Amino acid sequence: MEYVYAALILHKLKKEVNEANISSVIKAAGAEVSDAQVKALVSALADVNIEEAIKAAPVAVAAAPAAGGAAPAAEAKKEEAPAGKTEEAAMEGLASLFG
Fold first, then answer.
1. Same-domain pairing of 3 and 35
2. Between the CA of residue 61 and those of 31, 34, 80, 82, 86, what are the distances in Å?
3. pLDDT single digits (tens) 29-57
4. How many domains does the chain have?
5. pTM of the entire structure?
């Protein structure tokens, strides 16, 4: 997962998503770099428009409680999405990153 995050960080900073840059981000985070995983990710992202994939990915955002305290339980239940559907949607969004 840290490899995908590294690619997203590079994209956000408008840096090239390549093997050297991904390896640098992973190393800077203090993790061990797997060259095979880096190569696989760069290869998988070669034909992917990351900006379009991000826009197409469903976003599950929890509503922040009001400044006065927590929202009433009835309101909280309305805003919650079914866990299974949210997880499936998130997985579909991640799958789109890999073609």
1. yes
2. 28, 32, 9, 13, 10
3. 999 999 999 999 999 999 999 989 888 88
4. 2
5. 0.57
